[in-house]
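For the sake of transparency, this paper describes our internal protein records without simplification. An entry from our holdings is shown next, in its original layout:
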Amino acid sequence: MVTDPAQGRVSSEFTLKDAAGAPIPGLTLKPVWTDSGYRSAVQIPDGVLTDGATYYWNVRACTSVGCSPWSALQKLTVRVRPLPVPESKTLALTDGRLTAASAATDCDDACPATPDGKILAGRSDGHDWATWIKTDLSSLPRGSFVTGAKLSLTRADCTTGCTAQKFDLFQLATAWSPWQSGKELLAAASVDSYTSGEELTATELGPVVQSWVELGDNTGLLLRAAGEAPGAAYYSASAGNAAKRPQLTIQYVLPSAPGPVEDIAVSTGDKGLLARWNPPLSGGAAGEETGYTVKAETTDGLIVAEVETTAPRAVVTGLDNSRAYRVAVTAHNSFGNGPVSRSALSQPTAVSGGPDLYKTYVQDYLRARGRITTGESLTAGDAASESAHGGVFRELLEAQEEGLVGAREALEKRGQSYRSASAELSDVLVRRGQSTAEVIVHATVKEVETIRTDGVDDETEARNDKRFTFTVMNGAVVLRTEADDASAGLTLSPTAAAEAQLESEGSEDADLPADEDGDALDLDDDGFPVNDGVPLVTTLAGVVDGNGTANWSYKNRGTKWEYKQDCTNFVSKALYYGGHMKFRNGGRKADHSWWQEYYLFGTIKNKTYTWSAAENLRRHVTKYRHSQTVSKASSAKAGDIIFFKWKSEKVYNHAAVVRANSRGEIHLVQHGIKELTTLSDVIARYKKKDPIERVLIVRVKDR
């Protein structure tokens, strides 16, 4: 976890050495950038480390001011742990569960009929034929993990020595029926293919089938012969011999209750405790959120408190400092409760001065920071002097002054202003740190700021679990750091599930292609989009009917983060669940692919780099979906995706969804420091320390 007193961007540099202290041959680890207070991580490429071998690594953090000392060397021994393999089942869909029909794509009336019991693909009898296939998935048990699916067709024009036909396979974006024309079939298909030039035996349809189940959006597949190869005929779903009809074979794992939670860690505070844990290796059911029941128990098993949550953490208050407690955590879904996992016993401990005093320190600190933001206090010194406890946080506030004042002045120069700033604390736990000279406050902090533009107020919103660390020396209390509590408390799973806890890194040498520089918005000397004319005025997407991507992002902005840096994963989910953007098949690290699926027999959710990393998603939507880039800020509209590149970084490293373009201001929804914010607010926040250098707005093809 890296922190900067100025609350800016921090670069982490890692080294990795073998047991003898020598660098790993051919391994270069690029710096990793995060916002202050978040966890930083680097992923070692496959094939570099050896099972059973020991390595040493360390890390340092850098800002524009300089770098920290290198950390002490950390020992790492690689141990490959086999994962449990649940029973896999097979479902073969044919006959009444699968429908197939062909149509000549070069006509829209008086089209030729296909032969009885046959479907066609490619050039035949002077026409270009395409085939539509749709399956009825009602026999697939709800909540199943689809781990694989293959489509098979039987040739009707050849029995031996047949040359396997290669297909371009498309998902349908809109519904089509066999009584419609071939031209209408092509029009119903997605613009981009799921796979191109593959034989059916090589085409994995598991992610597509899973998406049909998750989205309830099964309009079928379109198969077209690839290239100029001769057409071919196959038996259809109405063929007389049932064994020769098309068949979709699905491999799946039945849903169940979740497994046990892992790695429960308990921090006891003054009359309370904070429990954290890693989610079960498997949530038990696809498409369902895992919930948790958390109970605080005494040594004799008496339950004294119970909390329900969907996040892998819980604060329990109202405990007795003279008694010991253990925490029991049970994961659950609609299929039942998982096994109970229990922590060791631990006893709350009083904090000198009492928890209310430290809660007041935090509230006063946040209030003072808000006063600088709005201009009620011109400097950090003023804000500290105006607080009864200003000496506690003056030093930390002074480190943030340049950024806070710079953001305020930058907006004022644009005719905008912060009119109010408030902070509300909940689920507060105050505890001793590693020594009696340290006190830590854990709290959920909701911060709301109001920005006035042309006399109209809009709110930004942030809700985060925070950790505030104080030092106590000779009676003097000083607030040292503010950090993200989930990042600070993260314990990586010792299994393959660890990868799902962190945002995937892209290619090691990714850089900003020079030929794409012109796609970014023109920024003025202050780093804001150039005023390019009369702005659009749109209704906020929260109430816009049919704007799926923006609506989903707004309604689900509070959904739990899957990664400790979750911005791109959140955007991809908005495109998928809200905009129904279709999967693209391919390797997990390939820029042309975009999907999420369940692998290792459904135990782990797997996503492509383009799904979870901003630079990779940017390259995917611009290069492979040929999406439109928006050259003027005034042309942005709800549902567009906006990418940010900081001056100190080589690639775009953040993504957000445009919620609205109103009164010349672009409103954003994101998984970031603020869930609801504006483009100007984001640019202003980083203006003084590590400015945003490029802003790219992309109108992603929704199909």
Q: What stands out?
A: Confidence is low (pLDDT under 50) at residues 506-510, 536-546.
